[in-house]
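Go through this:
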Amino acid sequence: MDIPQDIDSFCTWYTKTFDLEIRDQKSKIQYKTNIKNAYNSVQEHPFFCQLPHAIQEWSYEYKDSFKSELFMDSGDPTLVTKPYESSIDKLFRVNVLWNKNFPDKPHRNWVNFQNLFVNFNDLIRGTMVCRFIDGPEFVSNKLLELAKEVGLTGRKYTQERDDGYYAYHVYIKFPVSLLDEDWNEKGAQIEVEIQITTQLQEVLRSITHKFYEEKRINPKPEQGNWKWDFKSKKFKVGYLSHTLHLLESIILESRDDVLKNEEQNND
């Protein structure tokens, strides 16, 4: 079987493989209905109802310890949902581009519009931007503590990609109701993604996001020789991000040195 090379060929493969249409009106309506219902359930959960007050408390605690603001703004991780076409892009990546077993199924199984809500962890997501490089770990721990307090489970991991992306990702499971292919309601647990990053990394990400979107649906795997291609966008973007990460550590060290000197002077 030929490997689909783009979204159009993937859609053809999807229809043949699952005997399901991927861009028909029913699939679109069902996806949009489910994503809206899931979004509302998540927003109305006690976790997000209590989060604004919790963010204030975390900010006070952080400022008391480091004499610095924790967030760039209010800290509110305004949630957004993945558009229908973006979900098709991710189905392409998961089933084909990232699937080392293709044409056999991926390690966990095929993903389609009948099961993507329990297989994708970023259909609903938000971002929190911290001022300093020690903020993301602090906030990720606090988010998991709050999740536990309201009876939810969560997990976190760090992202430190070769291409220069740095962030903490927190995933929290929420109970929601979804409609199946026959429009019957069923309960499910879906993960919501909260990315916690820093101000410098967020500025760079906002500039380069379109570049990464195009790169990740390229069926040709990227080779490491870009690290010597100093005239390429990839080289500049990747190493600029690594440099900013180093700069953030130097800024943090300087902040802590100033704080330490102030404490010594006050003794």
In short: The chain has a mean pLDDT of 90. The CA atoms of residues 18 and 193 lie 28 Å apart. Helices lie at 7-18, 25-44, 46-66, 84-97, 116-119, 135-149, 199-216, 233-266.
